[in-house]
Amino acid sequence: MGKNLSRKIKNCWLEPDICKREEVFDFCSEYIDFLSECKTERECVEYMQELALENGFIPLDTFVKEGRKPSRGDKILVNHRDKALIMFVIGEESIEKGINLVGSHLDTPRMDLKPSPLYEDQGIALFKTHYYGGIKKYQWTAIPLALHGVVIKRNGEKLEIVIGEDPGDTVFTITDLLPHLAKEQMEKKASEVIPGEGLNLIVGTIPREYDSDGKNIKGSKDMVLELLKNRYGLEEEDFISAELTAVPAGRAADVGLDSSLVGGYGQDDRVCAFVSFKAIMDIKDPQKTCAAVFADKEEVGSMGNTGMQSTFFENAVAELIDLTTGDCGYLKLRRALSNSKALSADVAAAVDPNYSDTHDKENAPRLGSGVCIEKYTGHRGKSGGSDANAEYMAMVRQVFNQADIVWQSGELGKVDLGGGGTIAQFLANYGMDVLDCGVPVLNMHSPFELASKADIYMAYRAYVAFYRDMK
Question: Which of the listed CATH numbers 3.40.50.1170, 3.30.365.10, 2.30.250.10, 3.90.980.10 matches domain 110-248?
Fold first, then answer.
């Protein structure tokens, strides 16, 4: 058995045999690049798909069109609407006997542009936004923001836009009130300091032209429209068929004098997405079929046709069963899903020394103490969460111990303070065993989240062990 039989709090950095600092730092250097380049779910899917194809993954559609039967070791890729992704590695056993699945999500809190975003006020051109996911609105003001997304133009052309990331590139921002005039603002509750309708991006201030009397007749909004037309061929109506989002500008970075942390936007849940991606890429010839699911829309309840409440995952499994057996009946699909074992790979709320009274310290995840398993999530009284049974907890624990994984257990803060959900509940709806398992994070849902490099690397090792050894 492994080194975690004692439930004493361990620290990965003090386990040099299983957490080699050079390996950890090299692994997280690649992660920092990923986090810096992939700030939307579309960008994540594009990044992952490109690397997967380079490493032998084949689109499921290719198998279907060729009538090709998958065999052990085949690597199969499913791109769902460029916003969700599934990666399979086919095992020796029948898919009906179940899949070892690690599921994460690619979406993160952000500022989405409204369908008709552009307006002018006080000579300033602005974009209206509608925030996405649970945020503290005041954290998104007075910081540099970049614009990422796609626009489908009137003629059907798809235009990909990234503004604010390259050196010397222009950025955007949302204003806040100066302290000298903020007496009334400072007396409000934190949730009311910045209203949702006040999260508007400054995009220009130069008016287009004046009339002969020097009176402004075409203002900064007109100038912005002219710039969009000249640079991108965009018309104002094209915003209707656009997915444009404002995200924190700039790269992720090392944090601390010892460079032990990664700081950056979107680590909930792209840290778990990245490590599960790296894990599935390293699986070869497994006994059971393995799957990595990268879903969308978790931050808003997993709704929509790319969220985990849709059928995109079970549809892919049905296709695989049909290819391998020649007949995917309803019963075969239900057996495969019910017999599966899953880790819901989502971040945990690490205890913060500045706010330690929000956690039960005996059940609080800590930075540097390894990957965190959470028997249940949900809100007060476990509402809306999945609750893993004792038998499955023991199975995961045994897999991790035998693989010398540094792990810890925790829950999302004190019982009556709130809580949150993951995709675990939707995987559990299939009847499969599910356990939340991910990286502890500080500053969750803020523009700059923090995670320990040791925990990130240990999560990767944990997911590899789960794929390889879960029976």
Answer: 2.30.250.10
The Cα angle at residue 220 between residues 215 and 226, in degrees rounded to 5 = 115
* Mean pLDDT computed over every residue of the chain: 94
How buried is 11 (Cβ within 10 angstroms: 0-12 exposed, 13-18 middle, 19+ buried)?
middle
Query: Which among 412, 277, 439, 438 is positioned nearest to 343, based on CA atoms?
Result: 438
CATH for 12-108+265-469, among 2.170.190.11, 3.40.630.10, 3.40.190.10, 3.40.1370.10?
Answer: 3.40.630.10
SS3 118: strand
Which token pair is 266? 């979107």
pTM above 0.85, yes or no: yes
How far is it, in rounded angstroms, from Cα 234 to Cα 150? 12
Terminal-to-terminal C-alpha distance of the chain: 17
291 close to 74: Cβ distance less than 8 angstroms: no
Count the neighbouring beta carbons within 10 Å of the beta carbon of residue 202: 16
Task: Give the SS3 label for residue 267.
Answer: helix
Distance CA 104, CA 224 (A): 38
Would you call 132 helix, strand, or coil by DSSP? strand
- Whether cis (ω within 30° of 0) applies to the bond prior to 269 is yes
User: What is the side-by-side order of every strand in the sheet holding 110-121?
Assistant: 158-163, 145-152, 242-248, 110-121, 124-132, 201-204, 173-174
Question: Which of 454, 428, 422, 424 has its CA nearest to residue 439?
Answer: 454
Tokens, residue 185: 């603002």
Mean pLDDT by 10 residues, the chain (471 residues): 55 92 97 98 98 97 94 97 98 96 98 97 96 96 98 95 95 97 94 96 90 73 95 96 98 98 97 98 96 97 95 96 90 96 96 91 93 88 86 97 95 83 94 97 97 98 97 92
